[in-house]
Amino acid sequence: MAITVNIYYNGANGNARKFAEEMMASGAVRDIRAEEGNLRYEYFFPMEDKETVLLIDSWADQHSIDAHHASPMMEKITALREKYDLHMKVERYVSDESGIPETDRAFIKE
């Protein structure tokens, strides 16, 4: 059962984007993606909100998230959040192991 966390980082003066850029440039994103249980760690930029960055962060299970939260990496992330004075909105989703229903497949082009 995968767990996906959507984190919306919001700041001022482009700070959310600067945060994501620094996470990438510093190698933090690469290191997080290499952590055991990480399935996805990607930033996206909403077209209608230039001051927000969406992080889609997906993990194999709660144990993997707990290990990530207990790692030294969280100190780095927290310090960067503070540096850029970011605020967060968080959504959490648990995967549906049954997959995509056939009734929905008709709307998906692969």
Give the structure's gist in a few sentences.
The chain is α+β, with helices and mostly antiparallel strands and 110 residues long.
Structural features, described:
The protein is built from five helices and four strands; from the N terminus they run βααββααβα. It is of the alpha+beta class and 110 residues long. The longest helix is centred in the N-terminal third of the chain and has 11 residues, at 15-25. The two termini are 24 Å apart. The model has no long low-confidence stretch (mean pLDDT 95).
> Helix segment count?
5
Gross geometry: globular
Give the strand content: 25-35%
Question: What percent of residues adopt helix (DSSP H or I)?
Answer: 25-40%
Low-confidence stretches: none
* Overall pLDDT confidence: 95
Task: Supply the number of structural domains.
Answer: 1
Q: For this structure, what is the CATH class?
A: Alpha Beta
The tally of beta strands, per DSSP, is 4
Q: What separation lies between the terminal Cα atoms? A: 24 Å
The biggest sheet, with number of strands, parallel, antiparallel or mixed sense and barrel status, is: 4 strands, antiparallel
* CATH T-level fold name: Alpha-Beta Plaits
Q: Provide the gyration radius in Å.
A: 15 Å
Q: In terms of structural class, how would the helical and strand content be classed?
A: alpha+beta
CATH 2nd-level architecture: 2-Layer Sandwich
Strand order of the largest sheet: 2-3-1-4
List the secondary-structure elements in sequence, H or E. Answer: EHHEEHHEH
